[in-house]
Amino acid sequence: MTVYNFSAGPATLPKPVLEQARDELLDYQGSGMSVLEMSHRSPEFDNIIKDAEGLLRELMAIPANYKVMFLQGGASLQFTMVPLNLAQGKKAYYLVGGSWGKKAYNEAVKLSKTIPFEPILLASSEDTVYDHIPDFDPASIDKDAAYVHITTNNTIEGTSIYDLPDTNGVPIVADMSSNILAARYNVEDFALIYAGAQKNIGPAGVTVVIVREDFLNDQPQLSAMLDYRIQAEAGSLYNTPPAYSIYISKLVFEWVKNTIGGVDQMAEINREKSGLLYDFIEQSDFYTSPVKNVKDRSVTNIPFVTPSKELDAEFVAQADKLGFKNIKGHRSVGGMRASLYNAFPKQGVLDLLDFMKKFEAQHK
Length: 364
Fold this sequence. Notes:
Layout: E1 4-5, H1 15-24, H2 43-60, E2 66-71, H3 74-86, E3 91-96, H4 99-111, E4 118-124, E5 147-151, E6 153-154, E7 159-160, E8 172-175, E9 192-196, E10 207-212, H5 228-233, H6 243-260, H7 263-283, E11 301-304, H8 309-321, E12 324-325, E13 336-339, H9 346-363
Parallel strand pairs: 1-12, 3-4, 3-5, 5-8, 8-9
Antiparallel strand pairs: 2-10, 6-7, 9-10, 11-13
Helix pairs in contact: 1-6, 2-6, 3-4, 7-9
């Protein structure tokens, strides 16, 4: 039985990457050591982390005046690091189009009780269970604010921002965790981008942070580990980094570049995969999508439901037995969710559609 992993993260990885990691597990390129046991100060790992940065810069067309860091703590730690480093004494706006955007805003509110800055909820679609990306008036944004925080892809609810909003000239900070490398963005449109790796880049444990140099903090922070400038100047080596996760990420970057052909080609593949599923849902009167606007549809996370919660549960149970793993929707929205990240194969979508047709025929 073929197993397809629809997990929202940690997610499926490219098979060639796993095979190379397996082959190099005991002896990395003749070093006699595994990357798992290698010093992060060794020449071998120095090459790994520099190659990883160089490949990511090439794939995303990251300009030279941006720093790239491989940090720990997941994207959730960035909910605190961003305002701690960038917003003190200023306003910070949050566009909340999903659960993770709300968590970022809530962490900012919590931090503002001890650090002087003002987090502002710019707009939210929580009242409609985040079924769309909310609109706002750019004129409502103070031009002297530190940043406007957005989430480019809402993993749970299946919505995305592809065309960046007008922020009245205020720099944009983006949580790009679930569609980095899956869609093309112009890095120069952002002051800072952060992304947990465990969806499109690699295994859990490393977080990519891309920040414009003039946006780095000038004042020392309460902890060196939470200080962007210290981390950037140390080249992500202030302390022992998540070395093996960085190594796997490097292999994934190589796969995107050499096998896929780059981010634009990857984005085209993702549009094709998600389009197959969206087209089927649209023509069905059995399955529906909770996403209100077509323009907001995510190419990486596609939620859908049947006519009842009971049928949803039956769908998930049958799907699991057939090898469609982790397709159950998030507990906050229910139903099903197919996460079609970069490494997820097109054949998995085609096989899922065959099952969906049979399930509909049985229960319609």
